[in-house]
Amino acid sequence: MTMPSVYDEMSPRAYPTYSGGEPAERERREVLRQAMERQGFTVYETEWWHYDFKDWRAYAIVNENFDRP
Asked: How many CB atoms lie within 10 A of CB 14?
């Protein structure tokens, strides 16, 4: 399924408010946004795929290696 832009594309098509593209692409983008917002996330203003959690500033930034047992 396609979206208005590909993941990690840095163009106006990546904006969550981009009005171009196909109606079905914009509808899928909106379904994602509504689902994420119901869980307390907000969309990043220039990337439809990038969301921040409402309390993200309260969490420390860590660098964990998940390859070790």
From this structure: 20
Helix (H) or strand (E) holding 17: none
Tell me the Ramachandran region of residue 24: left when phi exceeds 0, alpha when psi lies from -120 to 50, beta otherwise: alpha
pTM: 0.79
Question: Can you tell me the distance from the alpha carbon of 1 to that of 22, in angstroms, rounded to the nearest whole number?
Answer: 12
pLDDT in tens, 52-65: 998 888 988 888 88
Which residues does 28 contact at the CB level (< 8 Å), separation at least 6?
Answer: 1, 2, 3
Tokens matching residue 47: 């990337």
Token pair of 25 as six digits: 């692409």
